[in-house]
Amino acid sequence: MSAALPPGVFYLAGPLLGASFGGNTMQRRLLAKTALASAAAAIPVSALAQYGMSQGPMGMSSGVDPELNIIFTEDNPGHWQQVVQLHVPNVTVSGSQLSVVTPHPMSEPHYIVSHTVVLENGKFLDRKTFTWQDKPASTHTLPAGYTGKVTVTSTCNRHDFWVKTMMV
Hints:
By secondary structure, the protein is an alpha+beta fold. It is built from 4 helices and 8 strands, in the order H-H-H-E-H-E-E-E-E-E-E-E. The strands form 2 sheets. A 5-stranded mixed sheet has the order 1-8-7-4-5, with no helix packed on it.
């Protein structure tokens, strides 16, 4: 075994496969998975991008948008196509007041949990949480004179995480 592996791999893998894990098959599989994930994570993102691919969980190349069916928008409702109009937050700005309304019915088993507002460069502005008895509407004060990107989220306890981004 030692003759077939490069010296660096032997010294890392040899003890892990032998003495450390006592020859346990499950432990060897875990080691193999970890080694493969580490190798995949080392692939530069730019190399994947030229083939229209992206890195997924643990750096593994997925070939798919990593936000697909995790973050939903009006243009990308994923598997929630039938309920898009009830979940995308409606945003209006008047002066420094940003108002958010999600046109979603509220009931104890199914309701909007929160609105979050994030400014350009990921600067957190505010969050409003709701109970099923509340109207899913919130008002947030923008910094004086703010112009730029605003990202608003609306989270439904059944239909996940919805995002709307706009310029103000």
